[in-house]
Task: inverse folding
């Protein structure tokens, strides 16, 4: 499938009403036993958090966290979470936490930044914005997650790619995720992606030294404080919305299945 060619000096594609999307997610999730908590970032900004415990609870279930909508010009992430909640795609044996709309004002304006001009995904060290401050305060109250998945888009990309942050790349999840996504979406094949050398087609494994990047994205805070496995998933936003949403859904499902296999390896055959 060819690119639409409509993103000129920024995202020019389909936009969403974040309040309607968040309401639809909360409404559908409530029917399936999810709980919802609202983070009060300001008197006019409340960020929904949804949680669903695993069934059954023993042995200790895997814990997975997903977020989307931190950049207001990346609408496919919240729509992908809505799609997965509506279709009941998530396995029942995993504890799940969703933060589906982290920058509602930015999504209203189709703007990467919040209303104060802050890139929220560079604010997880400084906490200048009320959205990131409220989010981190809540994250710090939660137990660790086995896997965190952050849903993003890139308006310049020619295909899907991801960032993998994990201390042990030999136990990474990127390869099966890229293989799965390649069935539904082009993969970014450039040797340099988003200004960084690609480890393999569609895969970036950047330095995880927090001192090397003082303007922390959400992934850095999570890696330092609440997880040892993080994937930031980047759909190519110069393609139709259905393809972008489908790519993110495919990536999430592939990552969850991959971490489940690592955590519960198949028994060795008897000699």
Result:
């Amino acid at each position: 499938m060819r690119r639409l060619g409509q993103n000129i000096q920024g995202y020019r594609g389909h936009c969403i009403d974040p309040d309607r999307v968040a309401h639809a997610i909360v409404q559908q999730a409530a029917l399936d036993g999810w709980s919802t908590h609202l983070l009060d970032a300001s008197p006019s900004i409340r960020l929904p958090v949804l949680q669903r415990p695993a069934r059954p609870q023993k042995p200790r279930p895997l814990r997975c966290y997903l977020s989307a909508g931190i950049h207001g010009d990346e609408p496919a992430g919240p729509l992908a979470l809505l799609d997965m909640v509506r279709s009941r795609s998530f396995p029942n044996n995993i504890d799940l936490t969703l933060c589906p709309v982290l920058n509602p004002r930015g999504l209203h304006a189709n703007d990467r930044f919040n209303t104060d001009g802050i890139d929220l995904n560079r604010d997880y060290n400084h906490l200048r914005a009320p959205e990131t401050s409220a989010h981190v305060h809540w994250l710090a109250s939660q137990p660790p997650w086995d896997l965190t998945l952050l849903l993003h888009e890139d308006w310049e990309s020619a295909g899907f790619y991801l960032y993998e942050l994990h201390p042990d790349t030999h136990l990474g999840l990127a390869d099966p995720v890229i293989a799965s996504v390649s069935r539904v979406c082009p993969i970014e094949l450039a040797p340099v992606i988003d200004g960084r050398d690609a480890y393999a087609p569609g895969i970036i494994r950047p330095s995880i030294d927090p001192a090397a990047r003082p303007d922390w994205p959400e992934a850095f805070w999570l890696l330092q404080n609440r997880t040892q496995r993080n994937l930031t998933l980047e759909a190519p936003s110069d393609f139709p919305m259905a393809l972008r949403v489908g790519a993110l859904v495919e990536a999430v499902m592939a990552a969850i299945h991959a971490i489940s296999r690592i955590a519960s390896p198949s028994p060795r055959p008897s000699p």
